[in-house]
Amino acid sequence: KLNLNKNDFVVALHGIIHPSKGYKQIFLWWKKIVKDYKNWKLLVIGGGEEENWCRNFVRKYNLQNNIIMTGWLPTQKDVNLYLNAADCLLVTRRNTQENTGVIPSSLYHSMPLGKPTIATGLPGMAEIIENGISGYVFEPDNYNSFKSVLEEVYNNPKKSKQIGKNGIKRAKESFDPKLAAEKWTQVINESLVYSH
Question: What is the pTM of this model?
Answer without folding.
Answer: 0.89
